[in-house]
Write a structure and sequence with these properties.
The chain is α/β, with parallel strands linked by helices. Helices cover about 35% and strands about 15% of the residues.
Amino acid sequence: MEKWVVANWKMSGSKNLLDEYKKTFQNPKKLIVCPPSVYLNETTEFILGAQNIYHHPKGAYTGEISALMLNDIGIKYCIVGHSERRQYFEETNDMVLAKAEVCLKSSITPIICVGETFEQYQAGKTIEILSQQLRECLPNEGNFWVAYEPVWAIGTGCTPTTTEISTAHTFLREKLPEITLLYGGSVNESNAGAIFAIANVDGALVGGASLDIDKIHLIYQIAMTIKN
């Protein structure tokens, strides 16, 4: 079946880029675009998703956005626990779990990011770290997705080998047989086909390449040709 493409703009992009997406993508069934929150109330033919929410449903938290607010404008997907949130904003596994749970309570599908650092990768601890994150970050039930994003591959231009991605996704599939599993980490138009062809990879979380309309369009076209 065709693969999902989730475009994570991070703190980049513009109204002009959103307009380019609108012109380029006509009713794409498996594209989720996650722009900065100021653009989430736009009308589009594709699915809009959030990059983050706060882990409390409401309250005196100046500058934060709640899952209830996202639900109020029709947002149905939200990235939680991205490694950049963990690194720069010191989000813990407990906070990631809390965010996932408030998403589910508001009928939003959380896309929960997991993955190892370069030091953990070098030490051969990938599966150990993933095991811990699954125990501590995932709700006991509900319709959530999981994105495997090795931290050392994000924004570096480096990607694991297809064998390494396959090993991680096979492990995740054994633990989560019914869950949508994405791969993220320097996905681009050159490696997307090989990544989408890996068993148990249901799609990709695309960062930098999602800011180039030609690249993300090509990645999406590749995703639509994969049938495994």
